[in-house]
């Protein structure tokens, strides 16, 4: 397979590696659904290391011999209780300050002051949305660390997708995820969260029923979401609706250089960006945690 740099964009990568038939049936329509963008506008460098870069011959070989692999999402661990919130609760167990909105950050005498209250901070690990950082940092702090007006404007203009989800009760299946490339429904994915842990479903649910999360990339009203769910299999019964304004980060041809320049500048002055929206990388939880370990290691050098 040619290296990522030899493909001009994400759509070219898909067509050159999987052919017109597979692209028409699955790869093009599904990815257009999830990214909600023209795939030719997505630079492949953005997805390097985040997709299973496997050749057609490897696909055929693994299907014939039923070989297992260690590709992205080939296996995963999930909390028995509390869902993904369990991870957050454990990580925050010994923290003294929680759920305080960061309004402003000032740099004074090489120390950071947060919200005019939390003083004498030698460094900051920023896990928020990097688009909001220019407004959180004081004007004088931006100048001290070299964040120009031009960089701030470019950061604020970064693009992202939201996600509309519906928690549903449904028939039991053996699936973990169900992907829906077809244009007959706007829904792109069903996550069978009830299969991840028996505690993810209500205790009074009948033995042949479970729960799942239905996803749409972008905003869809609750009324329209309910209408789309009627088109799905597994006898879906809506339970709860939610819209998250930001979930998938979007890159264009200039994004990578902007983010690299910005995060390096911030790190030199003691602000370390960590996570999907802080680093503007398409991170899953495992990659975000790996980034946190890497930053923790870097901090030891920074403090020494």
List keywords for this structure.
304 residues; 20% strand; globular; alpha+beta; three-stranded antiparallel beta sheet; 3 domains; FAD/NAD(P)-binding domain; five-stranded antiparallel beta sheet
Architecture overview:
The protein has 304 residues and is α+β, with helices and mostly antiparallel strands. The protein folds into three domains: 62 residues, no CATH class; 128 residues, FAD/NAD(P)-binding domain (3-Layer(bba) Sandwich); 84 residues, no CATH class. The protein has ten helices and ten strands. The strands form three sheets. A five-stranded antiparallel β-sheet has the order 6-7-8-5-9. Strands 1-2-3 form a three-stranded antiparallel β-sheet. A hairpin with a 2-residue loop joins strand 1 and strand 2. The longest helix is centred in the N-terminal third of the chain and has 26 residues. The model has no long low-confidence stretch (mean pLDDT 88).
Provide a compact summary of the structure:
By secondary structure, the chain is an alpha+beta fold.
Count of distinct structural domains? 3
Low-confidence stretches: none
Mean pLDDT: 88
Shape: globular
Q: How much helix, percentage-wise, in residues?
A: 25-40%
Note the main sheet: 5 strands, antiparallel
Percent range for β-strand residues: 15-25%
Number of helices: 10
Q: What is the CATH C level class of the largest domain, in words?
A: Alpha Beta
